[in-house]
Design goal:
The complex is a heterodimer of chains A (505) and B (283).
Chain A: H1 3-7, H2 10-29, H3 35-38, E1 40-47, H4 53-70, E2 75-80, E3 84-90, H5 94-105, E4 110-114, E5 117-121, E6 125-128, E7 132-134, E8 139-146, H6 148-158, E9 165-170, E10 177-180, H7 182-190, H8 201-209, E11 212-215, H9 221-227, E12 234-237, H10 243-249, E13 254-257, H11 265-273, E14 275-280, E15 293-299, H12 305-320, E16 327-335, H13 337-366, H14 369-392, H15 399-424, H16 438-466, H17 472-504
Parallel strand pairs in A: 10-11, 10-12, 12-13
Antiparallel strand pairs in A: 1-3, 1-16, 2-3, 4-5, 4-9, 6-8, 7-8, 8-15, 9-14
Chain B: H1 2-11, H2 14-34, H3 41-44, E1 46-52, H4 58-67, E2 73-78, E3 84-90, H5 96-106, E4 111-117, H6 119-148, H7 151-174, H8 181-207, H9 213-241, H10 245-282
Antiparallel strand pairs in B: 1-3, 1-4, 2-3
Helix pairs in contact in B: 2-7, 2-10, 6-7, 6-8, 7-8, 7-10, 8-9, 8-10, 9-10
Classes of the chains: A alpha+beta (505), B alpha+beta (283).
Chain lengths: 505, 283
């Protein structure tokens, strides 16, 4: 075999250089893996409405602060367009992932309210203390202190009102209409009040937040639409049927809420309106003396991890203040770290086997090792080149990206076979035909290669451009593989094959 | 044997040759009309909690969750290598944390992965997919036209790709595979593979200056079969050896499409081209 002749060819030399460069890059930079391989959680956060870059940055920073306060490491926040932020956190447990999600979901607007009057908001929060457990109340406590002005206002409001309820709200649905089922309404009226003189919860909601609570008794959609005029939205609570779609037809923003499995009705109500408490006003606080220390308590046993995490979330949100725009967690993708590791080794093994299978089939077809071996080596070098570029630009190599590499290798092998067959000419069929020159045949082979490469690239670029989701990786590595193929590896393979096959004749 | 079949094929009347793939295409369309593949979680919205690990019993998990009034669908997915996983599906408003808690209390060692797609995100994904697929297809058509500049062969290549995708979709429907972002990506990738073999055939038949039509056809078939077998081999090893759903789905859809492509390239497209060349020669 004329190794020297092969290596001195310009195109082959280029390939060798690219491979060496790639290996150096991979070794020095390392490959960054996507979350589906390294394990962790990817959260897609959607903003309530499209925003400009400044607000996007503001949201990003405040979410980042919040998550940092929560104490998780390795967070990346990446804005996508004007309405989406992708958050990736590597190596977290499910519980951690869940409290991250809860933390993000809070807009963080805080109100303390008494008898229908708001006496403190987020700006009045001066300090948030460590979450602790109170065995007497059997609940988790988030202590915090409020400004002196707020405390004084509260002292006057509370003067002599022993046993009245004090409410603390986080993200209540301000300026909206709640349509609730009869039994939910009964509980809202009868509980949460403690003493007969105090205002009922619906009354307090109305006065403090302009929230109307209406018991659903088969009112028509039209009647409800009238009530919702000028309001932010209508929330249907525990109501089934097609009221939702009917209201939508009036152009009203409607949200529908159902109790979770196993959730008590009063818990459900608290969750929907963001209520913590109400707390019974103790005698010591009704003397007119201002008290700046308050607390939010979340019921649960000492070993109730869910309650503890919820308390932590509340503490983080109080500490970091409110977000400029409401955000929602729209998508979650959680992969346990060990599982990702398992996927990686499987895919690696599959890739190697695929390469061997390809080599074997090629060998079966031509019965020549001098074709099968170069085909396998060329494909392998293509993989190395793709990984090299991925390492260079720090592309997150996730599972779809790896699938893309393998798909690109598939087309790569196809094209090497086209080249080989053109080089071998009509020989295989055993007919003596007038052979056109080698250049012409190569031209024909490369016409096929360019045409199919262009179509693949065109098709995949649309995927790359239009997908926000994880499949951009698939498109990216496919395009990269095809480009490396037509520019570097295919021409080099053609040269190698030319020399190797010519020797044989 | 293969050679004989091919010889027979090469000797049949081109119009007859074209009929079979067209019938298969129509059957595929019919299947899709009756039952289009279901949309996956990432396009429809919803929650999937997957339990990886040994000894998890789908029925037991279902009972456990139904007891607490969870509205879920639980099913076991077995891979060819014998590994099993259990999938719990629910709509987005379900309390995922509670589900995970319940499962963990019963099976402390199980690995749990979780995917959630909210309604607006899945709507966006749907729109994006539709846009990506239609534009990619259009782009492919334009490129094919630019490369050949003759209407009949170009249209055949484009139709072949379309038929590949349609048949792959119909097979997905038959085997109960869902339409997800991953399978859509695979369908788009089919465009590339399909055009590959079709362009090879078209080039050989139309640009043949040295062979007879028959010889050009045989030489193209020989190359094309090797191409497809290597690709099928690679995809099959991917499908068998990995349990990652994304990879599995992409591999299986590509396999479906490549099988369809065998027929569409070597029978449909070959038939049309032979008919086209015969007509040209008569003139």
């Amino acid at each position: 075999m004329n190794l020297k002749k092969i290596l001195l060819n310009g195109r082959v030399l280029l390939l060798v250089l690219v491979i060496l460069g790639s290996i150096v890059t991979i070794l020095s930079q390392g490959i960054t893996y996507g979350l589906d391989i390294s394990g962790g959680v990817e959260i897609t956060v959607q903003l309530e409405k499209p925003v400009d870059q400044n607000i996007m940055e503001e949201v990003r920073t405040s979410l980042e602060t919040r998550l940092n306060t929560l104490g998780v490491k390795d967070i990346t926040l990446e804005p996508w367009g004007d309405q989406i932020i992708k958050i990736r956190v590597a190596n977290v447990t499910e519980e951690e992932a869940n409290s991250i999600i809860d933390t993000i979901n809070r807009q963080g607007v805080f109100y303390a309210e008494f008898n229908g009057i708001i006496f403190a908001t987020g700006e009045d929060i001066k300090r948030v203390d460590q979450v602790s457990y109170d065995p007497r109340e059997s609940s988790w406590i988030v202590p915090f202190s409020i400004s002196k002005e707020a405390a004084e206002k509260f002292a006057q409001l509370a003067l002599g009102k022993v046993g009245y309820p004090v409410d603390i709200f986080l993200d209540p649905p301000v300026n909206s209409v709640l349509i609730v089922s009869q039994d939910v309404y009964a509980i809202m009226i009868n509980e949460f009040q403690f003493v007969p003189d105090a205002k009922s919860l619906p009354q307090r909601l109305k006065e403090a937040f302009n929230i109307d609570v209406i018991a659903y008794g088969n009112q028509t959609a039209e009647e409800i639409a009238k009530l919702a005029e000028g309001r932010e939205k209508v929330i249907l609570i525990g109501i089934n049927g097609d009221l939702e779609s009917q209201l939508r037809n009036f152009g009203i923003k409607v949200e529908k809420r159902e109790p979770r499995a196993g959730e008590a009705i009063d818990e459900f109500i608290r969750r929907i309106i963001g209520l913590y408490g109400p707390y019974k006003l103790q005698e010591g606080l009704t003397t007119g003396e201002p008290h700046t220390e308050l607390a939010i308590s979340i019921g649960g046993a000492k070993d109730d991890i869910v309650a503890m995490r919820q308390a932590q979330v509340v503490s983080v949100v109080l500490r970091s203040g409110s977000l400029p725009v409401k955000v929602f967690v729209e998508g979650v993708n959680y992969i346990p770290p060990t599982l990702g590791e398992q996927f990686k080794s499987q895919v690696l093994r599959a890739g190697l086997v695929a390469l061997l299978v390809v080599g074997f089939v090629v060998y079966l077809h031509y019965r020549k090792l001098r074709i099968a071996v170069p085909v396998v080596i060329t494909s392998l070098s293509e993989v190395i080149a793709i990984l090299g570029i991925a390492a260079l630009i720090k592309w997150n190599l996730d599972l779809p990206s790896i699938a893309g590499i393998i798909a690109a290798i598939g087309t790569g092998v196809d094209q090497q076979i086209v080249i080989t067959d053109e080089l071998l000419g009509g020989k295989k069929i055993g007919k003596i035909t007038k052979r056109s020159g080698i250049l012409k045949r190569m031209g024909r082979a490369f016409f096929v290669i360019w045409a199919s490469a262009t179509t693949t690239i065109v098709a995949m670029s649309f995927l790359f451009k239009f997908f926000v989701g994880g499949l951009r990786g698939f498109a990216f590595t496919t395009i990269l593989g095809v480009l490396i193929g037509i520019l570097i590896t295919r021409p080099a393979y053609a040269e190698i094959a030319k020399i190797l096959l010519a020797e044989e004749r | 044997m293969l050679e004989n079949t091919l010889k027979k094929l090469a000797a049949t009347d081109p119009k007859k040759m074209i009929t079979y793939p067209l019938i298969v295409f129509l059957v595929a369309v019919l299947i899709l009309a009756i039952h289009f593949p279901n949309l996956g979680t990432d396009l429809k919205g919803g929650v999937v909690v997957t339990l990886h690990g040994e000894n998890v019993d789908a029925k037991e998990v279902e009972g456990l969750l139904k007891q607490e009034n969870f509205d879920v669908v639980v099913r076991e997915v077995k891979s060819i290598t014998g590994d099993a996983k259990v999938e719990i599906r629910a709509s987005t408003d379900v309390n995922v944390q509670r589900i995970i808690e319940l499962v963990k209390s019963k099976y402390p060692d199980v690995m749990i992965s979780q995917t959630q797609f909210g309604p607006s995100l899945s709507r966006t994904a749907q729109e994006q997919s539709l846009k990506a697929v239609s534009l990619a297809f259009l782009g492919m058509a334009v490129v094919v036209f630019l490369f050949f500049r003759v209407p009949v062969p170009s249209l055949t290549v484009i139709f072949s790709a379309f038929s590949d995708m349609t048949i792959a979709l119909a097979l997905m429907s038959i085997f109960g595979l869902e339409l997800t972002q991953a399978t859509i990506a695979a369908l788009l990738m089919l465009i590339g593979y399909s055009v590959d073999s079709n362009i090879l055939l078209t080039t050989k038949l139309l640009r043949r200056k040295e062979d007879t039509v028959e010889d050009a056809y045989f030489s193209a078939v020989s190359t094309g079969f090797t191409m497809s077998t290597t690709t099928l081999g690679a995809l099959a090893s991917l499908w068998i050896l990995s349990q990652a759903e994304v990879i599995d789905m992409i591999a299986i859809v590509l396999i479906f499409g490549l099988l369809a492509d065998f027929m569409n390239t070597w029978i449909l497209n070959a038939g049309v081209l032979r008919w086209y060349i015969q007509r040209g020669e008569k003139r």
